[in-house]
Amino acid sequence: MKSLKLLGRTRRLRDTHDEERAEKGILSLLLASDSQRPWSIAELERERGEHLGTVDAVASLHAAGLIHRCGEFVFATRAAVRMDDLSL
């Protein structure tokens, strides 16, 4: 029974790490100075090669107030851009 709990905990940690990596990757695409523009969800999916993880990461970033959504397009908020300028 303990091994099942440990396996579940390991899976959750891996999932959390994957989610954070997806969010960081998308936010860095949106903040890149050479591509700071609205991106479509489809473009982000093609760039990342993954649908579900991209959609989940976009939803999480939007809920955190780090990106704006306008239909199928997303772009970094002023707060996210400022945070990036400060190199936090």
Describe this structure in words.
The protein is mostly helical. Helix content is about 65%, strand content about 10%. The protein has one domain (about 1-85): Arc Repressor Mutant, subunit A (Orthogonal Bundle). The chain is globular and about 30 Å long. The termini are far apart. The mean pLDDT is about 85.
CATH class: Mainly Alpha
Low confidence ranges = none
- The count of strands amounts to 3
User: Mean pLDDT, rounded to whole units?
Assistant: 86
Biggest β-sheet: strands ordered side by side in the sheet: 1-3-2
Descriptive keywords:
88 residues, mainly alpha, Arc Repressor Mutant, subunit A, 66% helix
Task: Summarize the structure in short.
Helix content is 66%, strand content 11%.
Secondary-structure blueprint:
Elements: H1 2-31, E1 39-40, H2 41-48, H3 52-63, E2 67-70, E3 73-76, H4 78-85
Antiparallel strand pairs: 1-3, 2-3
Helix pairs in contact: 1-3
